[in-house]
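Exercise: predict the fold of this chain.
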Amino acid sequence: MDELKKELKIRKRVAAIAHRLVCKWQTLRLAPLTHAVYNLTNNIDVQQTEQRLVEYERANRASIISNQARL
């Protein structure tokens, strides 16, 4: 059950960062998000995956905040 909780926590975090993609169905690319969740859940390339999420969040911060305000 701990693995499930861990994966759900990671999915929620990744979804909050990548919400911009979900709002734009034409540009929706789930593969990178799925890989990020998989890697973090299974402790694979954790530092590299975390770095990619941080870079994405930093590059898209304004869009993420805008989308969160609409919720």
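Check your answer against the key: The mean pLDDT is 79.
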